[in-house]
Design brief:
The complex is a heterodimer.
Chain A lengths: L6 H10 L2 H23 L6 E4 L2 E3 L13 H5 L7 H7 L4 E3 L45 H37 L1 H16 L2 H11 L5 H11 L2 H14 L3 H8 L4 H38 L10 H9 L6 H28 L1 H7 L1
Antiparallel strand pairs in A: 1-2, 1-3
Chain B lengths: L1 H28 L4 H8 L7 H10 L6 H13 L13 H36 L4 H15 L2 H15 L21 H38 L3 H8 L4 H9 L4 H10 L1 H6 L2 H6 L5 H10 L3 H29 L7
Helix pairs in contact in B: 1-15, 5-8, 5-15, 6-8, 7-8, 9-10, 11-15, 14-15
Classes of the chains: A mainly alpha, B mainly alpha.
Chain lengths: 354, 328
């Protein structure tokens, strides 16, 4: 006799059968890999180096400036490693990133022995030394994109984490309790839905003294939960009338326990679908904002801000093609994952496949 | 029915008040005001402190924002949307000027979308699972994920830079290059050429979404008993598809139409911004940047009313098309 699988194992089995969904999932995995390895792929700081008898990893400075070992600041490296390492400690060695290019600044002439200065203005066509070209300031586009992957991934997860939590809580409370509480939560949802998102985002960004990428993510999250709340409310309305909820209630379970332990797990699959689609649209919103010039200020590398540079000079097609394709593929991947999830978990569609 | 309508309108009114209070409060609390926003751009417009104080009083900017909101709401109840501070024109005039260009783009896009989406959706459900349908659906799906601003930049590069000097060249931005003295035919042609790129950008995403939506509803409909009955009584495949299945998917379609009302009149901020199209979306964007409170409020009010009306309309049409659904 065969053991029956749980709901999620069954859903995963079904999801695995969709080749496009699997490719999309692999692409997201690839992005996570690029984001975590970004300083080792492109950067001007050694991944690992031995300096004055000790081993350091200066590349961690790309994640957080404080992680860059203090000794290099004390020895006046000023962010230039290759020459300083050789001059100040002839016995040193270093493992360099795959591409010696910085995502935040142009690489100067002879910074890497024998290499010319990065081409600036509209001269930076893609070439062997700059696979994706350079922008007006001479910054390598590939390096910028590799480091921008972190932003793209974080925007999706952080903002939808916020939106998902708010949406589920608001929708669950409204759907479960009904009556005037439902009326109240539905009105709040409607209000947030109607307030123009751009006004909200621009106003809040203007109100904050030093806006960072985290603020943008938070605002996208705080405005993007309405769809999730509506769906959650619908699911809770439907499920609270089911027999097992009545059974739980007669067994003495309180409303919080019923909502969390009994209804939510059963409502989670349909709620996850709009969250996945929401990740895609959050990435679109963030890159759109950066494109309009309201993105995080430098030194933050967002794919959308590279596009912004192309607006003033359309001849620089590489500033559109590479980041544009990256945004497109990422959004497509999340949409495909969402669609796969929908088909794998929706029992009505499941019937049809058999 | 009457009580339902009354209740909806009442709730809608409360929602409107809440939205306008939030937007007004946010707008007034953004750093700077319409006077400083203008001066920042142009040093020759620097004014003395007394003049500044006098102008602040004249526009009611010296009072705290709740008082300003009350003033705005009181004027609104008298049917007055106020005057733009930065453009020195009544807000209604500004909206009247901008609504035409926006409708030109969104209206054209709307017609193209529905003329193409319905046949595409039907075609996809008729050939469901075959190779050609799979390929079309995949392309549409990819288009749906393609960001508008990237598409707009691509189109600009191809049609305005690479094809410059050829017959295929299309204007980069604006609505018209010709002076108003030019003949009507030439001007129409000119506006038409300017329309191509913005309309394309506004069309493709919705086209992909709507045709997928139609197809999803069709898949649901063809599984119903009445479709099996129609087939059993000998109706041809196209007749079954169109007469029996498609007619029953009109209900969700009508809802979608109602919900697209605000974007139809509100226009797209990003598209109008990229193509410097003199429409509502661009007016909105500019008024936020100029801190032009009356214009921001006028447009916000219009968008919210349209959104709420669209929802109400969708619900009402729903029970008009399907007698089984009742509003109560």
């Amino acid at each position: 006799m065969q053991r029956s699988h749980g709901f999620w194992a069954e859903a995963w089995r079904r999801y695995r059968r969709r080749p496009l969904g699997m490719v999309a999932l692999a692409f997201v995995g690839f992005l996570v890999l690029v984001a975590t390895l970004a300083p080792a792929i492109a950067g001007t700081k050694p991944v690992l180096c031995r300096y004055k008898g000790r081993i350091y990893a200066p590349c961690l400075g790309y994640f957080d400036r404080r992680l860059e070992p203090a000794i290099f600041a004390k020895d006046k490296f000023r962010g230039t490693y290759p020459r300083n390492l050789a001059e100040k400690d002839p016995g040193s060695w270093a493992i360099w990133p795959l591409f010696f290019q910085d995502p935040y600044r142009s690489v100067r002439a002879d910074e890497w022995p024998g290499r010319p200065e990065n081409p600036a203005m509209d001269q930076g066509r893609p070439s062997r030394s700059h696979l994706f070209g350079t922008d007006q300031a001479g910054v390598d586009v590939l390096a910028k994109m590799v480091h921008g992957t972190t932003v793209a991934l974080l925007v999706g997860f952080v903002s939808m984490g916020i939106a998902g939590s708010i949406g589920i809580v608001v929708g669950a409370i409204g759907g479960y309790f009904g009556g005037w509480i439902d009326m109240l939560t539905s009105r709040v949802t409607e209000i947030v839905m109607c307030v123009p998102t751009l006004v909200l985002i621009l106003a809040v960004l203007a109100l904050i003294e030093k806006p960072t990428i985290w603020h943008t993510m938070a605002i996208i999250g705080f405005t993007g939960w309405t769809g999730i709340a509506r769906l959650t409310r619908g699911e809770f309305l439907r499920l609270k009338a089911s027999e097992y909820v009545t059974a739980a209630r007669s067994a003495g379970a309180g409303p919080v326990r019923i909502m969390l332990r009994h209804i939510l797990p059963n409502a989670l699959a349909p709620i996850l679908v709009p969250i996945t689609f929401g990740i895609a649209s959050a990435i679109l919103t963030e890159s759109g904002l950066s494109f309009l010039g309201f993105g995080p200020p430098p030194p933050s590398a967002s794919w959308g801000s590279i596009l912004n540079g192309a607006r003033s000079n359309l001849g620089m097609w590489w500033l559109v093609f590479f980041p544009g394709t990256a945004i497109f593929l990422t959004v497509l991947a999340y949409n495909l994952v969402g669609e796969g999830l929908q088909e794998a978990t929706d029992p009505r569609l499941r019937e049809a496949r058999k | 029915m009457a009580t339902y309508l009354l209740r909806r309108l009442l709730l809608g009114g409360i929602t409107l008040v809440a939205i306008t209070v939030i937007v007004y409060g946010l707008a007034r609390n953004m750093p700077g005001n319409p006077l400083t926003a203008q001066m920042g751009e142009d040093p020759s417009r620097k004014i003395t402190a007394e003049d500044y104080a006098r102008m602040q009083r004249a526009y009611g900017l010296d009072k705290p924002w709740p008082a300003g909101y009350r003033q705005w709401a009181a004027n609104l109840l008298r049917g007055d949307l106020g005057r733009s501070i930065t453009r020195k024109q009544p807000v209604t005039t500004l909206i009247g000027e901008r609504i035409g260009p926006t409708l030109l783009v969104s209206g054209t896009a709307f017609v193209v979308i529905w003329l193409a989406a319905v046949p595409l959706g039907l075609y996809a459900s008729a050939r469901s699972g075959r190779f050609d349908e799979r390929a079309t659906s995949l392309v549409l799906y990819a288009l749906y994920s393609f960001p508008t601003f990237v598409a707009a930049l691509f189109l600009q590069i191809v049609f305005a830079v690479w094809l410059r000097g050829t017959a295929w060249e299309l204007p980069l931005f604006g609505m018209s290059d010709l002076p108003p003295e030019a003949s009507l035919g030439a001007r129409l042609l000119d506006v038409g050429r300017h329309l191509v790129l913005p309309v394309t950008c506004q069309t493709y995403v919705s086209l992909a979404y709507d045709s997928r939506f139609i197809r999803a509803n069709m898949e649901e409909a063809v599984r119903q008993d009445y479709v099996r009955t129609a087939r059993a009584k000998g109706a041809g495949p196209w007749r079954v598809l169109f007469h029996h299945a498609f007619r029953n998917t009109l209900i969700p379609l009508v809802t979608l139409l109602g919900l697209s009302l605000p974007s139809l009149i509100g226009g797209s901020i990003i598209i109008e911004q990229i193509f410097t199209w003199p429409g509502m979306g661009r007016l909105f964007f500019e008024s936020i940047r100029e801190r032009d409170y009356p214009t921001i409020m006028g447009l916000t009010l219009m968008f919210s009313v349209l959104t709420l009306l669209g929802q109400l309309l969708a619900d009402l049409l729903y029970c008009l098309v399907d007698p089984r659904v009742s509003v109560a």
